[in-house]
């Protein structure tokens, strides 16, 4: 993994909104390798979403450089860039007036794919996320459950075969069962399709179970970045250490329960 | 079909013309309004600094009464027309279609602007973010996401606007645009309630049809049913086609006859039309025009002929306050018209329609009033009503100064109701018209004017500059010169107002001609 080429690189990136004194991002440097699954964890307002928006140029940094496949994103056409990066939005963001098939096929359509190719791709993706194409194709988002909507959101993000997928708390509003199932399913897709993923979450357990590496953000800075194992056993920062308490306690408790039952 | 009320038959006969013109003017204004409002509204959603002034301006327009807005456009366009005539050598007609369309266009804007802005800014920001995130350009986001999502709200605005414009278009009659308002204005003036009702129902019906066709198109777009959109579109085209058909079928009239907003003017316009037709000339009438508009329209050549009154020209146009006597006034008016506006005074019709202060005869006798001078000491205890313009006319200033009148109460009333109000004792003094039939009907005493503060008001036939030497027109109208006395005019007015006999303007105008012919043979 360490030998893989860098897919996304943040180089001393800062972002200030308006004339606010406090930075949303403060000199963040970070490399995401190709095919890596990076989870970004932190409390609300720590700059997670801003970090994600800088990648596909929904926002531009005040200082520093963001690189996509080695090139400064500001040298790239923002529209072209976004069509090459999948994005799963907080609160899904499906288009309420378009059917499931139209939502999933939107980026291919923008890229000018042929109608037949789009239809085939949509069916393929619906099968991939385990929604029967014949049944779901023509439904409107309002006719789906929360979990189904989130799956469609994921299918839309990967429809045009993007190398990179950005996910902003994609499983946030789901019940725990659906949430866990969907997270596992996405990890499977990530590996199967060879994606590079950045996932924002404030659930440390989720991050630990899914990601190759975890970046912890606090007040606009990345205060620690490491593998789940290293973070679990050897957190350097006091705040990160504190964050690890909950999953560790849970794991120990669950382990004891399992052992006790045996 | 002898059971059909002649007034309904009359109204039906005018329907193709009135409805057609109404459809054309209102739908043109609506289309123009949409073409301006939609892009402006979209720009306003992108630029908040544009939004406030735009909505404030369109709200402001909405607070201007429709009639005033329409009337304001006439002088504006007239000035513009004169400017283009001077610079490019060609002017345009500032009467009728153009001022109506422009004023109605302005009027149509607010609901479309407000609803489009509300509809687009009301979209969930997450959806807008998603539109950009999946790689749409701003233009694609507008067409693929923002407009479809805001469509129900935008369409509601368009439908409101359509209903407003179709309703307000009835007010384009006084600026010379034929519309369903012709029924309403003529009906109010001649107390023909069938006409008033007919105009209201026709306008409401048209508004309903257009609204429903738009609703059909909206539901089609919303549910992706192309058939409904097509059906609604075809329906609208049919309405427009049906509206245009009569104006294609009928050759355009050569002469335009103007009329102000009261019964006598409708009668005289109809009488002139009949004379022109009898001479083999085609003519159309532009009725219910404001006093100033009708004169300007004649001077500009937008209408060819109408009847005015020497005192009106004398006081209002020439700004004179002296009263040198009937003949002298006529002579000076004739010269002034020719020199100042190149307007030809063909001659006098033979009666005066002067302003006079009038009182119910019994009331006047009880108070011992015979002339305006007798009112001076009594006025502080009396109520006077004037027609809508009387108290702002120079004649009133002259009367008030000459006799030192100060009434306890001054009010405005439509001229048709003044006589009855005086007869019922609701008011004491009215601004009566001397040729009005109701003077006899309600036994109104017209007070003497010993100081000659009120100028003479001989009815005079005026021709536009380009028709001054039109011999065919002059010959056709010549038989009317000097042949209508005040008795005939009053009698004709009474016949129009007579509810029992239900006579149309046209039939009373024919009766007038029969009388003129009969007298000639005697």
Q: In summary, what is this structure?
A:
The complex is a heterodimer of chains A (262) and B (522). Chain A is 42% helix and 23% strand.
Over all CA atoms, what is the radius of gyration of chain A? 19 Å
What is the overall silhouette of chain B? elongated
Helix share bin of chain B: 55-70%
For the secondary structure, the number of strands of chain A is 10
- Profile the largest sheet of chain B: 5 strands, mixed
Side-by-side strand order of the widest sheet of chain A: 6-7-8-3-9-10
Textual characterization of the structure:
The complex is a heterodimer of chains A (262) and B (522). Helix content of chain A is 42%, strand content 23%. Chain A has 11 helices and 10 strands. Chain A has helices spanning 48-55, 78-83, 100-104, 106-110, 115-128, 133-136, 146-158, 176-193, 204-210, 228-233, 238-261; strands spanning 6-15, 25-33, 37-41, 63-68, 71-72, 85-88, 164-168, 196-201, 213-218, 221-226. A 6-stranded mixed β-sheet of chain A has the order 6-7-8-3-9-10, with helices on both faces. A 4-stranded antiparallel β-sheet of chain A has the order 2-1-4-5, with helices on one face. Chain A is globular and about 55 Å long. Chain B has helices spanning 6-46, 48-63, 66-88, 97-121, 125-133, 138-168, 181-190, 193-222, 226-249, 263-278, 291-300, 310-317, 326-341, 361-367, 372-375, 394-403, 415-423, 438-441, 471-477, 486-497, 505-521; strands spanning 255-258, 283-286, 305-309, 344-352, 355-360, 383-386, 409-412, 429-433, 444-446, 458-463. In chain B, the strands form 3 sheets. Chain B has a 5-stranded mixed β-sheet. A 3-stranded antiparallel β-sheet of chain B has the order 3-10-4, sandwiched between helices. Chain B has a two-stranded parallel ribbon with strand order 1-2. In chain B, β6, α16 (394-403) and β7 (409-412) form a beta-alpha-beta unit. The longest helix of chain B has 41 residues, at 6-46. The interface between A and B is medium-sized, with 21 and 16 residues.
């Amino acid at each position: 993994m360490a030998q893989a080429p860098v897919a996304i690189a943040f180089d001393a990136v800062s972002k200030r909104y308006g004339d606010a004194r406090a930075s949303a991002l403060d000199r963040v440097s970070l490399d995401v390798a190709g095919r890596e699954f990076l989870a970004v964890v932190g409390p609300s307002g720590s700059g997670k979403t801003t970090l994600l928006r800088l990648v596909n140029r929904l926002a531009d940094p005040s200082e520093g450089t963001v690189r996509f496949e080695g090139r400064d994103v500001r040298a790239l056409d923002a529209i072209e860039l976004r069509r090459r990066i999948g994005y799963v939005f907080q609160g899904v963001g499906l288009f309420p007036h378009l059917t499931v098939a139209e939502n999933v096929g939107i980026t291919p359509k923008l890229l000018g794919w042929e109608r037949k190719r789009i239809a085939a791709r949509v069916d393929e993706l619906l099968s991939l996320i385990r929604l029967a194409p014949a049944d779901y194709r023509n439904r409107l988002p309002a006719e789906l459950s929360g979990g189904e909507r989130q799956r469609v959101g994921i299918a839309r993000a990967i429809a045009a075969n993007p190398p990179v997928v950005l996910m902003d708390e994609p499983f946030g509003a789901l019940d725990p069962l659906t949430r866990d199932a969907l997270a596992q399913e996405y990890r499977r897709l990530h590996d199967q399709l060879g994606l590079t993923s950045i996932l924002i979450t404030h659930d440390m357990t989720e991050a630990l179970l899914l990601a190759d590496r975890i970046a912890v953000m606090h007040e606009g800075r990345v205060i620690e970045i490491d593998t789940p194992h290293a973070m679990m056993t050897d957190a350097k920062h006091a705040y990160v250490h504190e964050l690890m308490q909950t999953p560790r306690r849970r794991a120990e408790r669950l382990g004891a329960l399992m052992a006790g039952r045996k | 079909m002898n059971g059909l009320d002649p007034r309904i038959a009359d109204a039906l006969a005018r329907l193709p013309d009135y409805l057609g013109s109404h459809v054309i003017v209102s739908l043109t204004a609506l289309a123009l309004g949409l073409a301006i409002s939609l892009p402006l509204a979209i720009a306003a959603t992108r630029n908040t600094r544009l939004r406030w002034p735009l909505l404030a301006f369109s709200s402001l327009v909405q607070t201007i009464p429709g009639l005033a807005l329409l009337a304001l456009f006439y002088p504006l366009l007239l000035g513009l027309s004169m400017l283009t005539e001077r610079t490019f050598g060609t002017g345009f007609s500032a009467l009728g279609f153009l001022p109506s369309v422009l004023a109605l266009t302005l009027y149509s804007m607010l609901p479309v602007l407000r609803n489009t802005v509300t509809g687009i800014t009301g979209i969930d920001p997450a959806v807008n973010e998603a539109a950009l995130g999946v790689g749409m350009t701003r233009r694609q986001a507008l067409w693929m996401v923002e407009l479809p999502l805001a469509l129900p709200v935008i369409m509601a605005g368009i439908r409101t606007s359509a209903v407003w414009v179709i309703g307000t278009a009835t007010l384009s009659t006084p600026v010379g645009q034929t519309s369903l308002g012709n029924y309403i204005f003529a009906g109010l003036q001649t107390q023909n309630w069938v006409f008033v009702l007919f105009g209201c129902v026709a306008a409401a019906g048209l508004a309903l049809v257009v609204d429903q066709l738009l609703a059909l198109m909206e539901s089609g777009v919303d549910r992706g049913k192309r058939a409904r959109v097509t059906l609604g579109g075809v329906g609208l085209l049919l309405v427009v086609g049906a509206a245009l058909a009569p104006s294609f079928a009928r050759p355009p009239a050569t002469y335009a006859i103007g009329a102000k907003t009261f019964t006598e003017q409708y009668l005289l316009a109809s009488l002139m039309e009949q004379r022109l037709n009898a001479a083999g000339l085609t003519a159309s009438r532009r009725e219910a025009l404001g006093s100033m508009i009708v004169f300007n329209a004649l001077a500009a050549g937008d209408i060819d002929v109408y009847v005015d009154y020497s005192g009106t020209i004398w006081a209002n146009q020439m700004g004179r306050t002296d009263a040198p006597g009937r003949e002298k006034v006529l002579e000076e008016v004739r010269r002034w018209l020719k020199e100042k506006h190149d307007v030809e005074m063909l001659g006098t019709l033979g009666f005066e329609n002067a302003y006079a202060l009038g009182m119910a005869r019994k009331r006047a006798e009880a108070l011992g009033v015979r002339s305006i001078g007798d009112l001076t000491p009594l006025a502080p205890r009396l109520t006077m009503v004037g027609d809508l313009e009387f108290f702002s006319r120079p004649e009133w200033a002259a009367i008030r100064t000459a006799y030192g009148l100060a009434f306890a109460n001054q009010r405005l009333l439509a001229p048709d109701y003044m006589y009855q109000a005086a007869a019922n004792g609701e008011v004491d003094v009215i601004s009566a018209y001397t040729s009005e039939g109701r003077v006899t009907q309600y036994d109104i005493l017209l007070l003497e004017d010993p100081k000659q503060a009120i100028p003479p008001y001989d009815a005079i036939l005026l021709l536009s500059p380009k028709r001054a030497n039109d011999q065919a027109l002059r010959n056709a109208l010549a038989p009317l010169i000097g042949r209508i006395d005040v008795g005939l005019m009053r009698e004709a007015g009474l016949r129009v107002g007579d509810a029992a006999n239900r006579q149309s303007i046209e039939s009373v105008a024919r009766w007038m001609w029969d009388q003129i012919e009969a007298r000639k043979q005697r």
